[in-house]
Amino acid sequence: MMIEVLKSKLHCARVTEANLNYMGSITIDEDLMDAVDLIAGEKVYIANNNNGERFETYVIKGERGSGCICLNGAAARKVQVGDVVIIMSYALMDFEEAKSFKPMIAFPNAENKLPH
């Protein structure tokens, strides 16, 4: 049996930009992507702690070290700059493998930087 489990999570990142005039997606600082094993084009689910919105999109690499969390296109309507969001991705895996799998989780600070 295959099940879907949490693979990656950026917990409580701050939205730095909302760009309605872009084709779509979320731009994420490459340092944050690396910290939780996200790749460009990967599907992510986003939960907005400020307004309760939950939606999905895909990842675009942002400038490394910039702290960028930018919602693009239609997703820009679901956030305000400064909102706190949880960004999650999931993986499909065998039930037995899932029992011991440990997701990558990072807790960025208010500037979307990670502790060293």
Q: Measure the end-to-end span.
A: 39 Å
Query: How many domain regions?
Result: 1
CATH architecture: Beta Barrel
The average pLDDT is 97
General form: globular
Quantity of strands, as a count:
8
Radius of gyration, whole Å: 14 Å
Label the structural class: mainly beta
Q: Strands of the largest sheet, in order across it?
A: 2-6-3-5-4-7-1-8
Question: Can you walk through the features of this model?
Answer:
This protein is mainly beta and about 120 residues long. The longest helix is centred in the first third of the chain and has 6 residues. An eight-stranded mixed beta sheet has the order 2-6-3-5-4-7-1-8. Strand 4 and strand 5 form a beta hairpin. It is built from two helices and eight strands; from the N terminus they run E-E-E-H-E-E-E-E-H-E.
Describe the structure in brief.
With 116 residues, the protein is mainly beta. The protein has two helices and eight strands.
Task: Provide tags for this entry.
116 residues; mainly beta; Barwin-like endoglucanases; 8-stranded mixed beta sheet
Layout of helices and strands:
Layout: E1 2-14, E2 17-19, E3 25-29, H1 30-35, E4 43-48, E5 54-62, E6 69-72, E7 84-94, H2 95-100, E8 104-106
Parallel strand pairs: 1-8, 2-6, 3-5
Antiparallel strand pairs: 1-7, 3-6, 4-5, 4-7
